[in-house]
Amino acid sequence: MLRSSWRCHAVRPTLSLSMTRDRSLPGDWRQTANWALSTLKNLSAYQGGQVFSWGQNKYGQLGLGMVGPSVSSPQVIQSLLGVPFTHIDAGGAHSFALSFSGAVFGWGRNKFGQLGLNDTNDRYFPALLKTLRSQRVVYICCGEDHTAALTKEGGVFTFGAGGYGQLGHNSTSHEINPRKVFELMGNVVTQIACGRQHTLAFISTSGKINSFGLGGNGQLGTRSTCNRKSPALVKGPWKALNGPDPDDMHSGPEHGHYVKRIFAGGDQSFSHFSTDQVRPWWRVHDNQNDLAPDDFRVPDPRGHIHVLNANLIQKWLSHAHGRLPPEISNEIDVVFSSASCLNGSFLSKSHPDHYNTSSKCSGVDMNTARVLLHRVIQPDYPQISQLVCRSLEKILAPRLISAPPDIEALRLYVTLPECPLLHNPSNYASLTIPLASATVSLKEAAHTVLCNWWCQLEPPMFQRRVELYKEVVLYLLGMQKAGRPPAELKVLTCFLHHSLKLLGLLHAVNETAGQIIQYDKFYIHELDELIDIRNDYINWIQQQVYSSHGDSFPVTMCKYPFVFDAQAKTTLLQTDAVIQMQIAVDQAQRQNFSSLFLPVVESVNPCLILIVRRENIVGDAMEVLRKSKNVDYKKPLKVIFVGEEAVDAGGVRKEFFLLIMRELLDPRYGMFRYHEESRLIWFANKTFEDIDLFHLIGAICGLAIYNLTIVELNFPLVLYKKLLQRLPTLDDLKEMMPDVARSLQQLLDYTEDDIEDTFCLNFTVTEDNYGATEVLELIPNGADINVNKSNRQEFVNAYVDYIFNKSVAPLFEAFAAGFHKVCGGKVLLLFQPSELQAMVIGNTNYDWKELEKNTEYRGEYWADNPTIKAFWEVFHELSLEKKKLFLLFLTGSDRIPILGMRSLKLVIQPTGGGEQYLPVAHTCFNLLDLPKYTSAETLRSKLLEAIEHNQGFNLA
């Protein structure tokens, strides 16, 4: 960029040059992208994006955070690192830098408000002009004590000293905030320039130059030495490039002066122009670019820092088959070692473009980033990949800071994960994990912005980040399991902390954004192969007790429960149940021991014993549980059916849960309402039953989970959402009451304005109260409030809230209290609603071949035994209902555990006697006694007879 400056010494004018090397500057300065000089200081932007300053520093105009004597050697302005700057300029004692996306930073003297910061305090560090952030500024220039800014749309803002009218606001007042020049509005200004105390503006469509400010030396070009407080036309032979018809172009010698660029000195003004007099008028349009004026709104790549784009990559690839030329190697190093260069790359040109960069919009075209990064990193070009890797690893990563100066300095955190190098395990320790460490170390403000940007990512891109750091965690856990020296283990622990913290941030973003990807995409299914989950849970509990924090302590995966799949969570819940049971048993045993010596201490049973009659199973269970203390619910459960010979090793307990839930959910009690369309039940808002029954049902569900038993409970998923403190939604109503939900969805989707006439709704709901119709208000005075386009979402929310919350509040609260009395705690909150549902009722993902595959055999039975082969042939020929009856006969439930068929370990053993005996199930152990039948028909007959008479217990 070639630009004159009024700030040069009067006796020795100087021009600023771009892309040159100054022998007086440090030898490692390859190129400078933009120079700005003043009588008091010098600024330079390095091709890699760093801004240097040196010279007078009386007012802090060097931006180094201090005032003081002159600085004789160039110093990096550290507080601007990472921001991609496109332009810098220097005034009398103040300075400005402009980023690619219009962020304006000013520092130095501010006596007249020339920094535009709404005050007159000097700044020793660069300060962001927030008022210009949204104005799409593309160019900025400085006078001695005033500043002008040009916007993408061709508007001009000025601020600072206005004593000579140099701000163009038709006054001589100073302005401490940027103010748009009113008289230039309606014109598209394409160039501006500031002299010491005057300002120039060029309008390309008319070819005219406007000036305002001090005119004592004729610098305004108005043929007068008067000052001008508002824009005035510069008198000259200027023509617009697309102006008069070519037929008129021979009319006079002054014809054809086309302004190329304007300049302002201290008290002088200059215009560089082109003319068509050297060629015939009929060829004047042959090469328009020769005559077209410069447009400061269009970035000139020759004066910019390097950015990664298709042209640059193609240039590199064209030289990559042999030894890379030094120029190419230098460019690669500059781009990938500079945060500024990467932050200025891949900028969006579509709507919203990068000038709309904000805390909600990164201004980056992520698809372009992915394509270009994959293009530059290819197996066919290893030299380039090695150079990129070295630059990222050795220079960029160590320089990332926790408090970037502007949001534009955060862009690399969203683009770099698209680089294939980060997905190579050999680069995890040197690239991928350091990026994670830098990310989790960001200060709160930067962290908030980055999370907002992650929220805007498309699901595939968001998932790639999740998958990347899941792979890193697996890699690190594998390294730990393989065994490493203590020093390496310490480093691995730190790496693991940072990688998991980053996954934690991504998970939090995913939940905040309403699940960009499904929650199970965070699951690491291989965890049970790499860590001892039970031991991890115990360590987690101990760390909480002893308040262990920091990266030096062993990593406990329980701090990051979102990586646990259903199997791992079930293991955690089982571990917690065993610990709680052991604590309760130990407490009972201590009490019993004390009772031997202290008569006042009563002995207690270490188990929770339920003695029930089949014909009064609900009443007997309620009687025992009402008398039980909270600690009793934590004890192992033992069930005894009166009059039956059976030792409860699990099977009796299974049938107890089956029978009592069937009884409690019977319609004759009127406790629950059955929905025909979904075949699901929900709490009846009108019931005559004691509320303690709901407490009992909740306790039974909790006991079932606590004792690892499946129960039959046809509630919708929303029950488990509420137990986990999640809010119901319209989707939950769609599951339970699809017809009602469909009508509500139609209300929300209706596009016309006549909702009131079409739907005729108000904020009420109609209920059937034992044959009588009852109208209830959803909100206060709801009967008087019609549903319209503006409040329909509120109506739907109120309706859903009524069905699932308000109408059944006391009943659900009793149920939840009973449930949490047994099954409360932190482990339960690790579950997703669907996982908790599967824990309670199991699932129906039957895989009968898997059941056969996992079956064990005892005695003389083995997989190819004739009786066993006949058994499986008969079994696979059974209908689905008969197979489910077999499961009920064998395990006590016709549903399978959350862990699937593989967790059902069926054991078959031979039994004595003849073929007249039936198969016998030991439900406690999933053990089947199978007589040695010699024919398939006999086997089929005896098996069906056994499974169809499966209630009652006797000693086998």
From TrEMBL:
InterPro entries: HECT_dom, Hect_E3_ubiquitin_ligase, RCC1-like_dom, RCC1/BLIP-II, Reg_chr_condens, Ub-ligase/GTPase-reg. Coiled coil: none annotated. Its main location: cytoplasm. It is found in: Cytoplasm. Residues 629-956 form the HECT domain. GO terms for biological process: protein ubiquitination; ubiquitin-dependent protein catabolic process. Keywords: Cytoplasm, Repeat, Transferase, Ubl conjugation pathway. The active site is at C924. SUPFAM superfamilies: Hect, E3 ligase catalytic domain, RCC1/BLIP-II. RCC repeats lie at residues 49-101, 102-153, 154-205, 207-275. GO terms for cellular component: cytoplasm. GO terms for molecular function: ubiquitin protein ligase activity. The keyword Transferase applies. This is Probable E3 ubiquitin-protein ligase HERC4 isoform X3. It comes from Clupea harengus (Atlantic herring).
